[in-house]
Each structure stands twice: as structure tokens, then as C-alpha cells.
Amino acid sequence: MCQGEAAGRGTAKPQDQGWAWMVLLAAVVLQALTLGFPCCIGVFFTDLQHEFQASNSQTSWFPSIMVAVLHGGGPLCSILVKWFGCRFTVMLGGLLSGLGMVSSSFCKSISQLYITAGLITGLGSCFSFQAGVTALGYYFVRWRTLANAMASTGVSLGFSLWPLLSQYLLDEMGWRNTFLIFGGILLNCCVCGAIMRPIQLESGSLPQSAKPEEEAGSRAEEAQLSNGASPHHPTLQQHTRRTKCFQILQKYLAFDIFCQNKGYQIYTIGVTWMMMGFALPHVYLVPYAIHNGVEERKAALLISIIGFINIFIRPLTGLLSGLRIFTGRRIYLFSLATLLCGLSNFICVISAEYSVLILYCVILSIAMSGVGALTFQVLMDVVEMDRFSSALGLFTILESITHLIGPPLTGFLVDVTSDFHYVFYNSSFFLISAALFMGLSFCALEKKNKLREASKARLDNPSRYQYSEMSTEPKAASKSPPAVEYITSI
After folding, report:
1. What letter does residue 113 receive in the DSSP assignment?
2. Where are the bilayer-spanning segments (predicted)?
3. Are 138 and 275 within one domain?
4. Distance between CA atoms of 254 and 232, rounded to whole angstroms?
């Protein structure tokens, strides 16, 4: 595993120094190759439609599946990291990503693309990205926040470079040869994984979060055996399997947190709803520009503009949100950024002139930087860190579902109406409604918590609120402790 196999050497941990910075560079490249890659699919949208005689809805399933699997494969990636380590998982992801794109270059139907580029490449990208982030967490402790912020610039680099490269290769050699070359490029994830060599941690520093559940399961099994049950008894085997399944679900899918933590519940529902419209501009902006007479190279440049601005704005947004004044208020910044994303879509409805589309990309990029920089920070604010990984598993799976169905449903609407404006109407509806829901719900939740704290304070310190009544009592009586003190001392 990432923690290292050799237990007895006693060497110093190479954290925050030396090879850790090479791992950070590998993480930047990984995020450019994986998270940045789906943004270029819109460049091929029109060619794939003509090649396979597919509708907007059918074609949009391809990038939707890729992004959904990229986000939703987190729990499976966590299991692979636990069993085989970060390095193996990153390299496995690179192999799958390359294999998926190479296979896509030989596809004969749009449905085959769903499996090759959508499922296989998406799953490979998920393994490489999430295992790379995990390895980065092992290599950095003191500078972990800075390392994550720097690594996230890889996404912006990918947004800038992938569309330009895609359009150039598409013009020169067609989409099939371009996909073949993409397969070779994505194999570089294996090189990044090779750089992330296992790191030895000090004795006793390994995560112990799974031990209580394992001990509980073993105690239940021992109780059955003490009552005379055979270890191979069908009832005991079924009970053991159920216990293990429950432990896995509890560890990787935090349904208990979703039911008990109102903040996590509101945020997860809001982001899941938001994702119905968040990806629509990335999928349909280039086809929309081409449909309105913009040259293909200029249309591809629009996505690159979004990525280029993200390179500078996203780190600034992360630093701004880290200020003390925003502690506990990041959800409102996130809601504001989501609201701005939704409102910016109306610019495309007003006009499809290239200069107007550039203005749209600038505003959208600024808003997207806020959403991208704050998504996981807000999640850390509403969930305790010892349960963050399991909360993240459920969070990514739910948002991947709406990532999957959003673009095809909008594509179906465009096919029926023959009007691309519905892309931006739909995106605005989901983004604005999600922003208002999260902002207002957290505001109401905050007021409710303040009222509860005030009520608790009155119960814990009744003399403060009953001073005028107790001042009329004799002094001797005031010496006896109030009954509420016995309650609070339990």
C-alpha cells in the first residue's frame, strides 16, 4: 500500500520535502489528464453525430457516462487503494484509460462508444485521479493545503490544452486517429503512478478506523461459536456475510450521516440537483457555437478560455475562502458561485456572437472557479473528518447519477424543439434553484441551531435569566444550589 511494505527500516518519512514535490508534479499532470479530458469531448460532438447518424441526446450519453463513472467510481477506487496501494491503482487507471480510447477509435456505433470511451476510460480516469489525490495526502502533511491547491491547477491546464489539441488533431487526421493518439497520451498516467512510490510511515500511524467494526464483527462471530454453532454453519455464514456487507456500506457509503446530519443532507441534495445543469455548457457550448456559424477552431477556443482563466482564479478563490472571516460561511460563497453560474447562461440566450460568447466564458469561468475550489472544502465543513471518506463516497455517487442523466435529457429536448437555447435555460434552472435551496436552507438551519444553543444556555445557567425573581428570596435560600445544577453535572 501507499504506507509502505517494509516495516523495520526506521528511516525518516519523506513528507513535505524531496521526492514529495515530484509526486506533486505527477498529481498536477494526473488531474490534467483525467479531470481535464472530458472537457474536449464537445469538440467531437458534431463529427460523431454525422459519423453515426445520432441525435443530440444519443451523442451526449457518451460524455455523460464518462463523467458519471469518473465521479461515481470513488468507493471502488478506495477498495483498490486499500488492497493494492495508490501506485498500482493509478497505473491500472492509466491502462484502462488508454485501452478505452484506443478501442474507441475502432467503434462502429455510438453505443460501442458508451462502453469503450464512456465506461472504460471513465473508470480508468477515476482510479488514476482519486488514487493520485490519496497518495498526495500521504506525501504532504504540513503543506497539504498548498499541495492540493497546486494540484488542482492541473484541471485548469487540462481545460486549456485538451480542446486546442483536440481541434488540431481532428482537423489533421479525423476523430478516429485522434482517439488513438489520446489513448497513448492517457497511458502517461502509468508514468505518473510509477513516480508515486510507496512511502513508509512510522509505526502506529496507519489508519485504524476500520478496527472497531472488525472487532464488533469478530465478537459477534465468537458469541455464536461460544453457543455451540459451527463456523461452517449456514446461519453463522449468512450473519457474517451480512455483517461484512454492512461494514462495507458503512465505511464507503455514509447513509447514517445522510440521515442524521442535516447540513450534509442539504448540501448533498443541493449539489446533486445542481449537477443536472452544471455540465451542460461544457458539452453543448462548442456545438452551439458551430450551429450559429462560429468557425470550429474558434469554437474550441471557448473551452480553452474557460480553462485558462481557471488557472489563476481557482487558487485565489481557495486562498480567499481560507480567510478566518469565511469560516463556517463557505456554503454561502459556494451558493453565490452557483447562482452566478446559472445567471451567466442567459448571456448565451441573448446573443450567439463570438464576442458575446467570450464574455460568457469569462464570467462562467470565474463562477466555476468558485464552485470547483469550494466543493470539497464545504463538505469538510459539514462532516467530521473521521467520516469524510465515507461521506465523500455517497456524495460522489449521487452527483454522478445526475451528471449521467442531465446532458441526455437536455439533448432530447433540443432534438424535439431544434432550439439550442433550451440547453442554457435548463442549466440556469437547475443551478439557480440549487443555489437558492442551499443558501436558504443553511440560513434556516443556522438560525435553528442558534435558537437551540440559546435554549440550552438558559437551561445550563438559569440564575442569569431568573435574577429578578430570585432577588426577592431570603439570602439564606440563595445559598442552596439550584436543582438544575444536579442535572447538568450528570
Report:
1. H
2. 19-45, 61-81, 88-106, 112-139, 146-165, 177-196, 266-287, 299-319, 331-351, 357-379, 391-410, 422-445
3. no
4. 31
DSSP letter at 120 equals I
Q: How far apart are CA 406 and CA 79, in angstroms?
A: 28
Distance CA 422, CA 428 (A): 10
Do 183 and 259 fall into the same domain? Answer: no
- The parent domain of residue 63 ranges over 17-199
Whether residue 270 contacts residue 441, with contact meaning beta carbons closer than 8 Å, is answered with: yes
| Helix, strand, coil percentages for the chain (3-state, nearest 5) | 80, 0, 20
Provide the greatest CA pair distance for the chain: 97
Which helix (DSSP H) or strand (DSSP E) does residue 463 occupy? Answer: helix 462-465
Handedness of CA 293, 294, 299, 305 (dihedral sign): negative
Are 160 and 66 part of one and the same domain? yes
pTM: 0.72
Question: Do 434 and 338 form a contact (C-beta atoms < 8 A)?
Answer: yes
In a domain, 466, yes or no: no
What's the rounded mean pLDDT across residues 470-474? 42
Residue with cell 442558534: 450
pLDDT in tens, 229-266: 555 555 555 656 666 666 666 666 677 888 888 999 99
What percentage of the chain exceeds 90 in pLDDT? 32
HSE of 138, CA atoms in CB hemisphere, 13 A: 26
